[in-house]
Write a structure and sequence with these properties.
alpha+beta
Length: 142
């Protein structure tokens, strides 16, 4: 009887382990983007000069962006110690490979998503003065 009970318990544990391992739900891009406030982490670009890289680092250090589920966004930057807050709107393009910000306004832009995963957002930027570069944002899950 003891052997049957041990076998039975092991079978039950195995079934629960299989069932529970299949319960993890992968987050949607919207969930990944809107769950936390993103903090600027780094800038990179092959075409950036050392001076351009230093300027972008100075301008972007301490900046954050929050994407809300309702399509609103808030960017906070500190330009030379002076805080600046910009509110806007956002949405994904049809295949969720880009963020369209401030659609229908003079400030409308399309930002290529290079990486969007838990804790990391990398976007491609194209600036007439700086060329192509990548901005990396992270969050610590809080």
């Amino acid at each position: 009887m003891k052997r049957f009970s041990t076998t039975w318990m092991l079978a039950i544990v195995a079934v629960f382990a299989v069932v529970l391992s299949g319960c993890t739900k992968e987050k949607t891009n919207t969930e990944l983007l809107t769950e936390f406030t993103w903090e600027y982490d780094a800038v990179s670009g092959d075409a950036l000069t050392a001076d351009q890289l230093a300027l972008l680092q100075t301008l972007l250090t301490g900046s954050t962006i929050t994407f809300n589920e309702d399509g609103s966004s808030v960017a906070v930057a500190s330009f030379f110690g002076v805080p600046s807050t910009t509110e806007g709107t956002w949405r994904f393009n049809d295949d969720e490979t880009a963020i369209i910000s401030d659609e229908g306004t003079a400030d409308e832009s399309t930002i290529e998503i290079i990486t969007l995963e838990e804790g990391v957002l990398e976007v491609g930027e194209n600036d007439p003065d700086f060329g192509d570069f990548v901005l990396r944002y992270t969050h610590d899950g809080e």
